[in-house]
Write a structure and sequence with these properties.
The chain is of the alpha/beta class. 37% of the residues lie in helices and 14% in strands. It is built from 8 helices and 8 strands, in the order E-H-E-H-E-H-E-H-E-H-E-H-E-H-E-H. Strand 2, helix 2 and strand 3 form a beta-alpha-beta unit. Helix 1 packs parallel to helix 2 and helix 1 crosses helix 8. The longest helix is centred in the last third of the chain and has 19 residues.
Length: 238
């Protein structure tokens, strides 16, 4: 099992590395669920000694994209890969909740499925198993999922099924150290977590003009989760 940390700055990436993470998923605007990071952010993070994946999400909100947004997703994905990301994390649905095959085909043609991870759009699809079969048929091997539940530890049944289908399951969504064993037993191969802590400037939460809070990655939270993953790996070898 590996540990992937959701990072938003090079400092987040460095902390994740030092605390024992295996890789990071880089995103901007974590507070809204994450948006595509800039190429400069990817470059600054990729020089550190840890694999970097980039979330590709051109705006906040739903994941039903129009043709302009699909084109932007392709461009952002190519930019992030050129800047040093090893893979991109992306996804989309139709208005009916089915896999966005038009987006998938464009990604396959312009980027290549070996560089793609399908994100939690799978969790809100009308039929996650059918969507997963379509991803496998397209050559995508990895999915980030909470098992279609609010938190990953409640989605064990779906994650087990996805794993048995042959997908590399990355479990994300409120993952805690005490969840690692159950997730591992369900076939999860990577756990994904934010490990954030809310901080304030000069003990002030807001002003009349701005929210002064930030949400950096917390070293101790990553370290605790890394130890739980390490213990699982040791027990799994016995």
């Amino acid at each position: 099992m590996q540990l992937e940390i959701c990072a938003s700055t090079p400092v987040d990436v460095a902390l994740a590395l030092e605390a024992g993470a295996d890789r990071v998923e880089l995103c901007a605007h974590w507070e809204c669920g994450g948006l595509t990071p800039t190429s400069a952010m990817v470059r600054a993070s990729s020089v550190l000694d840890i694999p970097v994946r980039a979330l590709i999400r051109p705006r906040a909100g739903h994941v039903v994209y129009n043709s302009s947004e699909r084109n932007l997703i392709i461009s952002e994905g190519l930019d992030c890969l050129e800047a040093g990301a090893e893979k991109i994390v992306v996804g989309g649905l139709t208005e009916d909740g089915e896999l966005d095959l038009e987006l998938l085909e464009s990604l396959e043609k312009e980027i290549g499925t070996e560089f793609l991870v399908w994100h939690r759009a799978l969790d809100i699809s009308f039929d996650p198993i059918t969507s997963a079969e379509e991803l496998l048929n397209a050559g995508i091997q990895e999915v980030l999922t909470s098992g279609a539940e609010p938190v990953a530890v409640l989605g064990l049944d779906l994650m087990r099924e996805l794993s048995e289908m042959g997908l590399h399951v990355i479990a994300g969504g409120g993952v805690r150290p005490e969840d690692v064993v159950k997730l591992g037993e369900a076939g999860v191969q990577t756990v994904h977590a934010s490990c954030r802590v809310k901080t304030f400037l000069n003990d002030s939460e807001t002003t009349e003009l701005f929210d002064l809070s930030t949400n950096p990655v917390d070293y101790s939270k990553v370290e605790e989760l890394a130890k739980a993953v390490q213990n699982w790996n040791l027990d799994d070898e016995e």
